[in-house]
Amino acid sequence: MDQPLVKAVGEENARYLMGKLRSTEGFPRPRVIFRDIMPLIADAKAYRILLDGLVSILPAPPSDFDYIGGLEARGFLIGAPLADRLGKGFIAFRKNGKLPPPVLREDYQLEYGVSSVEVEKNLIKPDSKVLIVDDLMATGGTAVAAARLVKRLRARVVGFCFFIELKGQGGRERLAGSPVSTLIQFPEKA
Q: DSSP states of 9-73 as a string?
């Protein structure tokens, strides 16, 4: 069992949490294993264990940031309750076209094309600090784009926090220079 998870929540809770995480091979395309957190979130005990674990591995103390930024869409399910627990504001980083103007937009490269992420222009105050969270880090493209938006708003990213890290996808390397914490690490092909 993954040691950061066991250290954060204990062995019994780690087993319970992992029992709720669903892995589907060949979805959404061949040679991909989709890590589905929705059954975990549907279980109140597993959801609480997940949030407790993330609080215990934050890459910066809560006193060091003003907002939690969640990446669409599962990052909202993690980021909003974390923000509530920690007494922080929540910022939604949305896919293109989901927010009313004025917004800032940042494009990023996917394996199969280009996508973009947006944030409402007047929510993040200059000189404030943001912790960016999501359920899963693979290539890190969305997280990097969100960090660029934070910088364009003259604020600072204090770190990144993810439930799952897919190793070998380059995400940690793309986020180099900022603290990154994850509860679970899966090898590239597992």
A: H-HHHHHHHHHH-EEEET-SSTT-EEEE-HHHHHSHHHHHHHHHHHHHT-SS-GGG-SEEEEETT
Q: How far apart are CA 39 and CA 21, in angstroms?
A: 6
Residue with tokens 């200059």: 126
Q: What's the Rg (C-alpha) of the chain?
A: 16
Question: Exposure pattern of 13-37 as b/e (b: 16+ CB <10 Å)?
Answer: bbebbeebbeeeeeeeeeeeeebeb
> Which has the closest alpha carbon to 8: 185, 184, 186?
184
What's the pTM value of the predicted model, to 2 decimals? 0.94
Measured CA to CA, the distance from residue 97 to residue 16 in angstroms comes to: 38
Q: At residue 17, what is the residue type?
A: L
- What residues does each domain of the chain span? 3-186
Task: Report DSSP state, residue 97.
Answer: T
The answer to whether 146 touches 67, Cβ cutoff 8 Å, is no
> Tens of pLDDT along 110-159?
767 789 999 999 999 999 999 999 999 999 999 999 999 999 999 999 99
Phi and psi at 72, nearest 5°, equal -60, 135
Q: What is the CATH number of domain 3-186?
A: 3.40.50.2020
CB 79 within 8 A of CB 70: yes
